[in-house]
């Protein structure tokens, strides 16, 4: 039994901590002195212009890149990720999920595979070759694989960048349902509408620095950093031009 008094008074243990983390490729500083703690709660959205370091920051958090200086502290066994384009094994949809379950050391029986596919609405395609699926279906399969290992954190790097609105909605629904079940979502996106729909908190990057961190509502209503103000104003102009 846990001691409730201690529980109540204790600060939530962060799932992930970056302390002065920097990333350098050759002479280029891609990320500089990022300090950040991520704890349980609603989805965290990473935003920033092209080349600001979003993918690099996700790679550091996921352990796919090592910091050139500073520290990154995260329980790797508890994380999953999905990128903009996912690689499918040359096998059936069901076999792709079974492989992910096995890789995570979990039972890969029919029931577990079916549960994972039900979660993303792909059970009816279980026997299809995975590589024949549409782009949107492949992203949902990638999510089924990523979620099948019951991650504490799910990292997503622009998971809907090449999807149409209906498939984007399907992916957003899965992300929201996963967040509601307690999976911590850390996701990059260029889509401000999507960030507003999904985000509980926003991290804004510019030139490899974390320049703003704010609850989503206050970030979109009143961004504090000049970089985020410019970014949001620019995106607004572009989306209005697209509508006219
Ligand atoms: N392996 C690498 N070697 C050299 N430079 C790199 C490498 N990976 C990334 N960079 C550089 O680091 C910077 C940040 O790249 P990153 O991909 O993290 O940005 P991003 O915010 O994800 O951009 P986008 O919005 O286009 O996806 C860029 O200037 C990029 O050219
Ligand atoms: Mg990127």
Question: What do these coordinates show?
Answer:
The protein is of the alpha/beta class and 244 residues long. The protein has two domains: 41-65 and 152-244, 3-Layer(aba) Sandwich (Rossmann fold); 88-150, no CATH class. It has nine helices and nine strands. The protein has helices at 4-9, 54-62, 93-103, 110-119, 135-148, 165-180, 192-198, 216-221, 226-243; strands at residues 16-25, 28-38, 44-47, 69-74, 79-82, 153-157, 184-188, 201-206, 209-215. The chain has a six-stranded mixed β-sheet, with helices on both faces. Strands 2-1-4 form a three-stranded antiparallel β-sheet. The protein is globular and about 50 Å long. The N and C termini lie far apart (61 Å). Residues 1-6 have low confidence and may be disordered. The structure holds adenosine-5'-triphosphate and magnesium ion. Adenosine-5'-triphosphate binds next to strand 2 and helix 2.
Give a short overview:
With 244 residues, this protein is an alpha/beta fold.
List the helices and strands and how they pair.
Layout: H1 4-9, E1 16-25, E2 28-38, E3 44-47, H2 54-62, E4 69-74, E5 79-82, H3 93-103, H4 110-119, H5 135-148, E6 153-157, H6 165-180, E7 184-188, H7 192-198, E8 201-206, E9 209-215, H8 216-221, H9 226-243
Parallel strand pairs: 3-7, 3-8, 5-6, 6-7
Antiparallel strand pairs: 1-2, 1-4, 8-9
The structure holds adenosine-5'-triphosphate (ATP) and magnesium ion.
> Mean pLDDT score, rounded?
92
Q: Tell me the number of helical segments per DSSP (H or I, 4 or more residues long).
A: 9
The number of E-state strands comes to 9
Task: Give the CA-based shape.
Answer: globular
Sheet with the most strands: spatial strand order: 5-6-7-3-8-9
**Secondary structure: helix percent:** 25-40%
Radius of gyration of CA atoms, rounded to a whole number? 19 Å
Name of the top-level CATH class of the largest domain? Alpha Beta
Class based on secondary structure composition and strand pairing: alpha/beta
């Amino acid at each position: 039994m846990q001691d409730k008094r201690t529980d109540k008074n204790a600060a939530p243990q962060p799932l992930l901590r970056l302390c002065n983390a920097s990333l350098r490729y050759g002479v280029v500083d891609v990320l500089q002195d990022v300090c950040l703690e991520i704890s349980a709660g609603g989805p965290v959205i990473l935003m920033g212009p092209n080349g600001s370091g979003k993918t690099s920051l996700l790679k550091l958090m996921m352990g796919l890149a090592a910091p050139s200086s500073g520290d990154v502290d995260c329980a790797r066994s508890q994380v999953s990720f999905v990128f903009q384009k996912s690689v499918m094994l040359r096998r059936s949809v069901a076999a792709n999920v079974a492989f992910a379950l096995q890789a995570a050391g979990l039972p890969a029986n029919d029931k577990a595979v079916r549960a994972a596919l039900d979660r993303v609405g792909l059970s009816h395609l279980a026997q299809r070759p995975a590589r024949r699926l549409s782009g949107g279906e492949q992203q949902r399969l990638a999510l089924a694989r990523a979620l099948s290992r019951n991650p504490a954190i799910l990292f997503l790097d622009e998971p809907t960048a090449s999807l149409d609105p209906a498939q984007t909605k399907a992916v957003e629904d899965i992300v929201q349902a996963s967040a509601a079940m307690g999976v911590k979502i850390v996701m990059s996106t260029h889509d401000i509408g999507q960030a507003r729909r999904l985000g509980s908190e926003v991290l804004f990057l510019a030139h490899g620095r974390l320049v703003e961190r704010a609850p989503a509502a206050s970030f979109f209503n009143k961004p504090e950093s000049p970089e985020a103000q410019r970014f949001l104003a620019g995106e607004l102009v572009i989306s209005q031009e697209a509508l006219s």
